[in-house]
Automatic annotation (TrEMBL):
The keyword Metal-binding does not apply. It is found in: Cell membrane; Membrane. This is NADH-quinone oxidoreductase subunit A. GO terms for cellular component: NADH dehydrogenase complex; plasma membrane. The chain crosses the membrane at residues 6-30, 62-85, 91-113. Belongs to the complex I subunit 3 family. It comes from Rhizobium freirei PRF 81. It is a multi-pass membrane protein. Its EC number is 7.1.1.-. NDH-1 shuttles electrons from NADH, via FMN and iron-sulfur (Fe-S) centers, to quinones in the respiratory chain. The immediate electron acceptor for the enzyme in this species is believed to be ubiquinone. Couples the redox reaction to proton translocation (for every two electrons transferred, four hydrogen ions are translocated across the cytoplasmic membrane), and thus conserves the redox energy in a proton gradient. One of its GO terms (molecular function) is NADH dehydrogenase (ubiquinone) activity. InterPro entries: NAD(P)H_OxRDtase_bac/plastid (IPR023043), NADH_UbQ/plastoQ_OxRdtase_su3 (IPR000440), NDAH_ubi_oxred_su3_sf (IPR038430). It is an enzyme of class 7 (translocase).
Length: 121
C-alpha cells in the first residue's frame, strides 16, 4: 500500500480534530461562567451528601468488582476469535490459548485469595 492511499483518512482525522477544537473554543467563549459555592458542592442524585459519602469515603468494593468484571469479560472475548480459527492455528495456537486460560485462572485465583470477590456489608 502506498502512503497516498491513507491521505483521505488523514484529511478526515484532521477535519474531525479541527471541528472538535473549533466547537470547544467557540463554546468556551459563548457559555456563561458564574461559579458559586452551592454550584460547586458535590451532590448525589440531586441531594446533599450524607453518611459515608459526606466524609469523602467511598466503597472500594464496588470499583474492584466492576474492574474485575470488565477484565474477565475482555479476556473472555479473546476466546471467540480463537475458537473460529482453531483448525487453522494448529497445535501451537491450541497450546498458547491454554496458557492464556491458565494465566486467566491464576488471576482469578489471586483475586479470590486477596478477597476482592468478598462482599462485606
Amino acid at each position: 500500500m502506498a502512503a497516498m492511499e491513507f491521505l483521505p483518512v488523514l484529511f478526515m482525522i484532521a477535519g474531525v480534530v479541527l471541528v472538535a477544537g473549533a466547537t470547544l473554543f467557540v463554546s468556551s467563549l459563548l457559555r456563561p461562567s458564574n461559579p458559586y459555592a452551592a454550584k460547586n458542592m458535590p451532590y448525589e442524585c440531586g441531594m446533599d451528601a450524607a453518611g459515608e459519602a459526606a466524609g469523602g469515603r467511598l466503597r472500594v468494593q464496588f470499583f474492584m468488582l466492576a474492574i474485575l468484571l470488565v477484565v474477565f469479560d475482555v479476556e473472555t472475548m479473546f476466546l471467540f476469535p480463537w475458537a473460529v480459527v482453531l483448525k487453522e492455528i494448529g497445535l501451537v495456537g491450541y497450546v498458547e490459548m491454554f496458557v492464556f486460560m491458565l494465566l486467566l485462572l491464576v488471576g482469578f485465583a489471586y483475586a479470590w485469595l486477596k478477597g476482592a470477590l468478598e462482599w462485606e456489608a
